[in-house]
């Protein structure tokens, strides 16, 4: 390759990387969680990488890449890895539903994740399960148990939640909580487990992806925030409530994402 061609190729690649670096990534785990945003984008381009569809378009004037991560920590980690390798997003916003754990949280209420904790990573011995206080990384460092979301994004999420026209769920206007979200590879449908997660970690909601995404974003220094709207209370009735409220709760969480984008 002659020098002219090489220079052209280099500039082309740099421009391409620059264009991709400017996108904001928006992720949900389920179709319901990204449906409104996909509709709101109107025109978008679909790219498939590693078996995942990435929807490239604009929302509220911002260049975004939208994707469905799939359910659970493995799916979330894989999707986040493919996303970051291919698009190098400047920010990541996760939107979706959760089981509410705060005693006064009801289906429809919003939880903005200021800290994320993987509650099912630890050891089991004769005394039972103990969560590990840190996670060893391949480079020899440790990832802490509680992972902090970006405080500026969390602030924007709170403003958006307060100012957005959120739809009533089950006849009630959603309340907004900010705090800890507990992540594990389990759909929690147990009064006892819900109480334990609240008592042990101070978690206000539980879900299946947030801490995995947080772990990767912290490692790669990508500012992130996790927005959740409660579809249920992670109690004995969780499955029935989830089926009733996953649609409206997902839609409210997506409205908050739009409100965040308007502030950027
Ligand atoms: N996502 C929504 N509800 C949930 C629950 N009860 N447990 C785990 N993830 C959830």
UniProtKB/TrEMBL annotation:
Gene3D superfamilies: Nucleoside phosphorylase domain (3.40.50.1580). SUPFAM superfamilies: Purine and uridine phosphorylases. InterPro entries: MTA_SAH_Nsdase, Nucleoside_phosphorylase_d, Nucleoside_phosphorylase_sf. Its EC number is 3.2.2.9. It is an enzyme of class 3 (hydrolase). It comes from the Bacteria. Keywords: Amino-acid biosynthesis, Hydrolase, Methionine biosynthesis. Residues 23-261 form the Nucleoside phosphorylase domain. Pathway: Amino-acid biosynthesis; L-methionine biosynthesis via salvage pathway; S-methyl-5-thio-alpha-D-ribose 1-phosphate from S-methyl-5'-thioadenosine (hydrolase route): step 1/2. This is adenosylhomocysteine nucleosidase.
